[in-house]
Structure formats: structure tokens, C-alpha cells
Amino acid sequence: MRTTVLKIYLSAFLIIIATGCKQIYTPPSITANLNYLVVDGFINAGSDSTTFNLSRTANLGSTAAPSPELGASLVIQSNNGYSYQLTELGNGNYGVAGLNLDVTQNYRLSIATANGEKYLSSYTPVKSSPPIDSISWQKTDSGVTVYANTHDPLNNTRYYRWDYVETWEYHSNYTSYMHFDPSNGTIITNNIEIPHICYGSDNSNNIIIASSAKLSSDIIYLAPLTVVPLNSNKISVRYSILVRQYALTADEYNYWQALQTSTEQTGSLFDQEPSQITGNISCTSTPGKAVIGYVGVGSVAESRIFITNQQVYPWYFDQGCMEILFNSDSADVTNAASEGLLPVEVKFSGPVLVGYYFGAASCVDCTLLGGTTVKPSFW
Q: Most exposed: 170, 345, 349, 377, by fewest CB within 10 Å?
């Protein structure tokens, strides 16, 4: 399992206080493309697959997504001589099926890029996560906050990280079996339903860590994971969250803490200044060349919960949908369709057809809100 890190930028602060005439200054750090390698992933010592994503940093002035690193060779190596080759999966992703590693050994990742660069992570011991005690939640005025609760009775873990996958069912405001026929400007009704029930999904993109190092007992209670905003469509019907828990070494925790500070907490004069983020990966072909990432090794604990709309009542997802009546003649119907509206229902006055009610397409077709009609296997 790899952590989703959408963008990592190498940053430098520049504060200019001037009087008199001012002109825009673009420092070299904004325009320079240092093209550093970003390694995002985790060596899963258990039966689940191991995946890594490789990408390159962009300059601070760029709005483009980080470019994937293609054609690389990735090998997991143990200190007793065993090795495991990863397969390129596309778009900078590399993976291997469950390894079931010997937890008494240390492991590292070897990377050879297509342009001849070579990288090695340091040998790292296996850190097995204790089970997740529970995933709890609480509704507040701002929404639903989801928490993780765990402990290690042996007091050996101390440093924790979590990520999650959200899945939710939602419905469009209107159910319709009506379709516009552009060949003759009429509305036809058949047994083909415009997608009405959909399922959305999203991965965590923030860094979630906690430590019990300063406590007498290795207990984490109510570690906040995410907040589902009040009346979001995520809990308009049914919501699920799969939480994954990782045990970290102290060095790995310090890395994630520094990355969290750099990416989430800077931005004002009163925030901590960003510091150099040092992981456990080095470039062996060009010593001293920067690389971003930390390769941890361990087993993962998982827990899934479901929350229904009834459990958080009152909770109303409102798109502000409205039905608009159009006359039944082809000109009006064609005009409605040209505006991106979809037919919802028929309007009669006694036996006489008056027209058709139309609604915004996203109020009728649930896929237009980003979901899919494919029901998850665990649903």
C-alpha cells in the first residue's frame, strides 16, 4: 500500500520588505526545475501487495501535476541476500504481490531509473502494526469527524501513521426513464434508466500521524482522521471508510512529521519555517543528489466502518435542483436539451400533453457528480 501524496514541492521562503518603488521579483527557486525523484510507497511485509509510485518534482511556479517516472527498475532486497523484483504498472506505479517477508530481517529498496540514476534506501527493520481497536465517529455542527483508536500492550510501537479510502453511495435527485431523441426533437420513454444510484470513492491526501512516546502507556485515543462536511453527499445514503494503520520507526515518524509541517502548516509569518526533509533514500550514482521519500517496512492493520444517513439524521444533501416546464413541441424540447437539461417527467392537463419537466443534468444523471454505477464488492 502506498500513501497518496498528490504534490511535493521543494520550497524556500522569500520575504521582501521594501519602500518606494516596488517591482515583481521572481527568485530562481521559483523557476528552477530541480527534477528531484519522489519515492512514495511502503514495503508490505504481510500478504497484501507492495506498491510504489515514482515521480519528479516540479518548480514552484508550475501548476502541472508531477511527472511520473517511467521505465525504472525496482527491487526489494533483504540483508540475508533475498531480492524481490517489482513490475511496472504504468503511470509511475510499480508493484509486487504479497511477499510474506521474514520479520527478523531488514529490507531496503533499490531503484535504477531509465536515465541511469541509482538510488538505495537504508536497511530498515520490519515494524508490525498492532490491531486497530476501533474506528469511531462523532457528529458535530461542522459534520462527522472520524477517529482511530489503538494501543500496543507491549509498549513497542509508539509511532503511528494512518491513511484511508472513503466510499459512499449517493442518488440523483430525480429518477428518469425519459430520453431526448435529437433526430426528430421528441422525448421517448423506455426501460433504460438514466443512472440514478452511484458510488463515489476517494483516497486520503493528507498526512495523519500520532505518537505515544511521551506517555507511560502506548495508547492512541481519538486520533482524528477526517471530517465529512455537514450535509455532504458522502452520507446522503451510506458511507464507508477503510482505515489502514502503519507502525513507524522513530526516524520514519520524524520524516512524516517534517513533511507534514512543510506541506500543511506553512503559509503565514507565524508558521514554522520549512526545514530540509531528509528521508532514508540516497542517490548512489550521484552522491549528494536530493531525493524525497522514506521507505518503511511493516505489516498493516485495517478496519472498515459504515455510517448510514439515518445514523446522522438530520442530514440533507441539497443540490438546489429545480424542475423547469417546457412545451411539448420539438422546438422547445430541443432548446431544453441544447441547454444541457434532461427530461424528468411528463406534464398533462387531463388527457392533453402539455409539456415536459426538465432538470439540470447532474440532478438526473448521478455519474455527472463523479461516481460510478458499479457497486463495490464489499457493499
A: 377
DSSP assignment string, 250-279: HHHHHHHHHHHHHHHS-SSTTSPPP-----
pLDDT tens across 217-245, in order? 999 999 999 999 999 999 999 999 999 99
**Closest to 178 in 3D by CA, of 340, 327, 345:** 345
As a whole number of Å, the end-to-end CA separation of the chain is 21
The DSSP secondary-structure symbol of 372 reads B
Rounded to an integer, what distance in angstroms lies between the CA atom of residue 327 and that of residue 202? Answer: 41
Whole-number Å distance between alpha carbons of 306 and 240: 4
Highest averaged pLDDT of the listed ranges 5-14, 38-47, 58-67, 255-264: 38-47
**Amino acid making up residue 338:** S
How many residues make up the chain in this entry? 379
**Collapsed DSSP state (helix, strand, coil) of residue 222:** strand
* pTM metric for this prediction: 0.85
Contacts of 23 by beta carbon, 8 Å cutoff, 6+ apart? none
Q: How many of the other CB atoms lie within 10 Å of CB of 320?
A: 7
Cell numbers that stand for 185 in this block: 426533437
Three-point CA angle 80, 81, 84, nearest 5°:
115
- Retrieve residue 333's grid coordinates: 424540447
Q: H or E stretch including 73? A: strand 73-78
Indicate if the pLDDT at residue 21 is higher than 60: no
Q: In a 10 Å sphere around its CB, with 0-12 CB exposed, 13-18 middle and 19+ buried, how is residue 374 labelled?
A: exposed
What number is the average pLDDT over the span 82-104? 97
Helix, strand, coil percentages in the chain from 3-state DSSP, rounded to 5: 10, 40, 45
